Amino acid sequence: MTNSHTFPFWTWLAPVIGVLALIGFSLPLSTWVQTLLALIGLMGSVLAAVYHAEVVAHRVGEPFGTLVLAIAVTIIEVALVIALMLSADTTTASTLPRDTVFATVMIILNGIIGVCLLIGGSRFGEQHFGSDGVRAALITLTAIIVLTLVLPNFTTSEYGPAYSDKQLGFVALVSVILYGTFVFVQTVRHRDYFLPRGGHFADESVHAAPPTNRIALISLVLLLVCLVAVVLLGKALSPAIESTIKAWGAPHALVGVIIAMLVLLPEGVASLQAARANRLQTSLNLALGSALATIGLTIPTVAIISLINGWTLTLGIDAKSTVLLVVSLFIVSISLGVGRTTIMQGVVHLVIFATYLFMTIVP
User: Quick one: pLDDT band at residue 215, thresholds 50, 70, 90?
Assistant: First the structure.
């Protein structure tokens, strides 16, 4: 964290490289050179996004800081999903939001949280956090997930795992209400639930003087540039990703997994850094807040656009995915229910995540 009037050189350079990599796709370069430049620009933009998000978060304080990256990434993810829906065929477009949102939830609940608990537990033995805020997030997340990804399989107004137009509009409204209420609780009514508990810090930056408004504003602008670069580079790489998946003979749902991984890279790195600094509360605020923002904002936005354009939106996940989702929600509610974690919980979450990835590739 910095409170100076300058930034490390690489935090300015990374967004520039990302923009240059995007320009490279319009130049007569070989495919492997374009792909390499895009990967370099993508990784650099991710690391720079994490840095600038931490600067902004330090300025506004917790828990407002963790909302910055979550909401910004979600807005960009919505734009990416809609752009891919417009360029995809009808069948792929109808299932892409479902695949991407489900992948995002599984990556966060098992992958990101699992790595944070494992790394944090390895360094500090036992980590502590406020369970009240985590329970509020998990209750809201469970309700939204079941309403958007599970319930469509059991309705009868529309054939298949999809809502009718009226049902889709109602569920979109309910999702926004649930997420809006959670944000109100997190930032106003019960803000203390989401603040780190005293006595469990190992990171001196928590107590450092916050950056100036000017520095925070510059970081916010650079954060948005980095996030846009991440998504546009991810979209530019999507044809290569899809062709590789077809060459492997893997299911198309893997595209949603890869898109979700690309979009969640900044949040994943930020969560991991907080866990390594013994700030597990911040890690969980980021992870669970991102999951809530993703499903609570992406699905309603895509639903509205689908209703306006007359698209069919397939939301219901299959039986195998439902089992994995139920297991994930059950395990995360137990492992985060007592306010302290060890490496044991981290290993369990990572095993479930590995199972999810394996069953996606080998259904």
Answer: confident
Phi, psi of 162 (to 5 degrees): -145, 155
pLDDT at 347: 95
Q: What is the pLDDT of residue 203?
A: 46
Query: What pLDDT, on the 0 to 100 scale, is given for residue 200?
Result: 44
Q: CB atoms < 10 A from the CB of 161, how many?
A: 19
Distance CA 109, CA 230 (A): 22
Rounded to an integer, the average pLDDT of 67-74 is 71
Q: How far apart are CA 300 and CA 318, in angstroms?
A: 21
Judge whether 360 and 257 are in contact, CB under 8 Å: yes
The residue ranking higher by pLDDT, 328 or 239, is 328
Torsion over CA of 296, 298, 187 and 130, rounded to 10 degrees? Answer: 60
Q: What is the pLDDT of residue 254?
A: 81
Q: What is the pLDDT of residue 74?
A: 72
The secondary structure of the chain, three-state, reads CCCCCCCCHHHHHHHHHHHHHHHHCCCCCCHHHHHHHHHHHHHHHHHHHHHHHHHHHHHHCCCHHHHHHHHHHHHHHHHHHHHHHHHCCHHHHHHHHHHHHHHHHHHHHHHHHHHHHHHHHHHHCCEECCHHHHHHHHHHHHHHHHHHHHHHHHCCCCCCCECCHHHHHHHHHHHHHHHHHHHHHHHHHCHHHHCCCCCCCCCHHHHCCCCCHHHHHHHHHHHHHHHHHHHHHHHHHHHHHHHHHHHHCCCCHHHHHHHHHHHHHHHHHHHHHHHHCCCHHHHHHHHHHHHHHHHHHHHHHHHHHHHHHCCCCECCCCHHHHHHHHHHHHHHHHHCCCCEECHHHHHHHHHHHHHHHHHHHCC
Q: Which pLDDT belongs to residue 2?
A: 45
Asked if residues 299 and 86 have their Cβ atoms less than 8 Å apart, the reply is no
To the question of pTM greater than 0.85 for the whole model, the response is no
Q: Across all residues in the chain, what is the average pLDDT?
A: 82
